[in-house]
Design goal:
By secondary structure, this protein is α/β, with parallel strands linked by helices. The chain has a single domain, classed as Rossmann fold. The protein is 44% helix and 24% strand. The longest helix is centred in the last third of the chain and has 25 residues.
Amino acid sequence: MRIDTLTYNNIQTQGAKRRLWLGEHSPQYLRNCADIMLRALQLRPHSASTSTIVLGAGACTEVPLAELARHSDEVVLADYDLASMHQGWDELASSTLRKRVRLLQCDISGGVSIHLNRLIERQRWDALAKQSARVVFDAAADCLEQCEVPDPPDIKNVYSAEFGVVISSLVLSQLFSYPLLDVLDNIQRRVPAFLGEQERHYRYQEAAQNFRLRVIQAHLHLLHTLLDLEGIAVLLTDVRGFVFKVSGTERSSQPGQSLPIVPRAFPELVRENFHVIEEQRWEWITDEPGEDKLGRGYEVVGYLLTTGSFSYR
């Protein structure tokens, strides 16, 4: 399963060295991520809990952990990758701040990848491969349709309405993309001749889109559940990927080289579950282009959210 490779992948893409690289290539991205989280602390009413949780914290590459700890009684970092969270925790220079930070290893999807893998393993892929691509992708669609998506996920050792600030830190797209990639990885391994055929099969595409929507809705419900009545939620997620050829400030997305990541219904789902205080969008670069390769980047949306119609300064 893709989630089992998180620690290895995060070593390459998170932490202090990666933050330095982003500071050179996407400085505004880092500032925007930090600013919106600190803005949530400013807007948190005095009546709300002074505890903070960061879902998908990883190594806190984009998270201003020291500032969160200074302005919270407790900061809970929640992620499947415990090693990365230790890396972020180790960067705190003050022992006083470290004492305020608690690491919580958990699957914030509620075990979706595990549930889906069990369904995948029950399929007789060798027999299906002897039939047709349609039969194979119908079976894959069955797995997605039958997969349990806990709504909301049950996260141990945290409680309903416990946090005055709840942060979802660039993790939402991973919650559905990793399990979907598990399906395609399985087909590549067992029925390689049919890999790439999924775009031609309507039922599979519909099942995959409904799966994305179910995972997103469950995650939004988790934020809602964890948030204190007058608390502030921060939702940061990639919404579009793109490739480009030109480095630096003159770069631009190339026509036909942009890929939506979240369903079109995503903004509507957010507004169905929360009152939107602020919404911002910006881009960031993950890889610069070279002589023989395109650069890659993402568009991010950042929301400040609340569950009530309160007045915020």
